[in-house]
From TrEMBL:
Its main location: cytoplasm. ATP binds at residues 108-114. One of its GO terms (molecular function) is UDP-N-acetylmuramoylalanine-D-glutamate ligase activity. Cell wall formation. Catalyzes the addition of glutamate to the nucleotide precursor UDP-N-acetylmuramoyl-L-alanine (UMA). It comes from the Bacteria. Its EC number is 6.3.2.9. It is an enzyme of class 6 (ligase). It is found in: Cytoplasm. It comes from Leeuwenhoekiella nanhaiensis. Pathway: Cell wall biogenesis; peptidoglycan biosynthesis. HAMAP family: MurD (MF_00639). It catalyses: UDP-N-acetyl-alpha-D-muramoyl-L-alanine + D-glutamate + ATP = UDP-N-acetyl-alpha-D-muramoyl-L-alanyl-D-glutamate + ADP + phosphate + H(+). It holds the Pfam family Mur_ligase_C. This is UDP-N-acetylmuramoylalanine--D-glutamate ligase.
Length: 443
């Protein structure tokens, strides 16, 4: 059996190792340049690879193709493979075929990283053999190949779900759905919603779907497209019979006939969205019969994800906050909503078909100056040009931070919350966040 892998990044190389272990003849092809650390792994495992272009003859004779989530289905090479009847799948689909572990799959437009890390912390504290994987850290496939776990908390993107066939997590968590990545979904929101709901499409009556019952996009879709899994809603506005709800600084979680409560006052990370993330993770933990005390301790000690409303430093009584992970409008909405000080906002990057209207009231109320950081800032200038006195264009992170330093006064906050993808000026959102932190430390 010949396994061809398109993309030599983390998911590609993890799949290559697992494929080799499972007896496939493996070939890795990357249109760009494979990083040295990944090349070394491929050489070490004696896996054939190429980069800087695709040799079609070596790809179109595959029995199975795993494509990296960054490659769109519309790419001509993918179209050729599909036309030839060669199955094209994602890494989570491939890896799930070779493990008997209990899978907790977490998706959503925002909050999935935080929820995945919360889940992983609870599992670790419960002494379960477990890791967080998927979009976090080492790939799912690499773990399955080299050190298979009993439990996986998997952060899963819509692009990964687009390439599944039989993948079915025992517990699926859907944090929320807001317009994102519409450039990959023909600018149709319903295509993106359908993609997110694929996390539940192979679940059975023995599985669970935990979801935000306050999100009308999710509840409307479920009414029209019922799923087989047992539904576990969470809500901060109404009580629920099964799942989780919030009232008077307390979360109540009900699964089957047992319930538990925990105070949100003792949680280290604040904000409504984090309360929801905690409800989702705690519900999943309860379904896995983890002790109440363990769930409480884990969530009270949880510090949050890097690049997500991360406090970097205070300089001259100005707080610098790194929210580089806000790659869409909804994530930036949360960030601006949580600001209590006058804010100098650093925004911009690759626009994914953004509609900035939802941010207007918050910008009017909280933002004193805007610094655009992107190759093309025209849409931002058009949207916010009349709202603030100062709007500046920059091309480098160091420049953006220096301008922010000059524009801010005692008691202000400087917030990097881009609402856009990072690929115009940075490798990824982590690179963008690290550059921000470095520039702040160098002030």
């Amino acid at each position: 059996m010949r396994l061809v892998i398109l993309g030599g990044g983390e998911s590609g190389v993890g799949t290559a190792i697992l494929g080799k272990k499972q007896g496939y003849a493996v070939f890795v092809s990357d249109f760009g340049t494979i990083k040295t650390k990944y090349r070394d792994v491929l050489k070490n495992y004696e896996i054939e690879w190429e980069d800087g272009g695709h040799t079609e003859a070596k790809i179109l004779n595959a029995d199975l193709v795993m494509k990296s989530p960054g490659i769109p289905d519309k790419a001509p090479l993918i179209q050729k493979l599909v036309a030839a009847g060669i199955p094209v799948i994602s890494e989570i689909e491939f890896a799930s075929r070779y493990t008997n572990a209990t899978l907790i799959g977490i998706t959503g437009s925002n909050g999935k990283t935080t929820t995945t890390l919360m889940m992983a912390q609870i599992l670790k504290q419960a002494k379960f053999k477990s890791v967080a994987a998927g979009n976090i850290g080492d790939s799912f496939a690499r773990w399955v190949a080299l050190d298979d776990q009993d439990y996986y908390a998997l952060e899963i993107s819509s692009f990964q779900l687009d390439g599944i066939v039989g993948f079915a997590p025992h517990i699926a968590i859907l944090t929320n759905i807001t317009p994102d990545h519409l450039d990959r979904y023909e600018y149709k929101f319903e295509n993106y919603i359908r993609s997110k709901f694929r996390i539940a499409e192979n679940q059975t009556e023995n599985d669970y779907l935990i979801y935000d019952a306050d999100d009308p996009v999710i509840t409307d879709w479920l009414e029209q497209h019922p799923v087989k899994a047992r539904l576990m809603p969470f809500s901060i506005s109404t009580t629920v019979k099964q799942g989780a709800f919030y009232a008077q600084d307390e979360i109540t979680i009900i699964t089957d006939d047992t319930s538990m409560t925990m105070s949100t006052k003792s949680m280290a990370i604040k904000g409504q969205h984090n309360t929801k993330n905690a409800m989702a993770a705690a519900t999943a933990a309860k379904l896995l019969s983890i002790r109440k005390a363990t769930i409480r301790e884990s969530l009270e000690g949880f510090q949050g994800a890097e690049h997500r409303l991360e406090h970097v430093l205070k300089i001259n009584h100005v707080s610098y906050i790194n929210d580089s992970k806000a790659t869409n409008v909804n994530a930036t909405f949360y960030a601006l909503d949580s600001m209590s000080a006058p804010t100098v906002w650093i925004v911009g990057g690759v626009d994914k078909g953004n509609d900035y209207k939802d941010l207007f009231p918050l910008v009017n109320e909280k933002v004193k100056a805007i610094i655009c950081l992107g190759k093309d800032n025209s849409k931002l200038l058009q949207a916010f040009g009349n709202m603030v006195e100062t709007i500046v264009e920059t091309q480098f992170m160091s420049e953006a931070v220096k301008v922010a330093y000059k524009l801010s006064e005692k008691g202000d906050a400087v917030l990097l919350s881009p609402a856009c993808a990072s690929f115009d000026l940075f490798e990824n959102y982590e690179d963008r966040g690290r550059q921000f932190k470095e520039a702040v430390r160098n002030l």
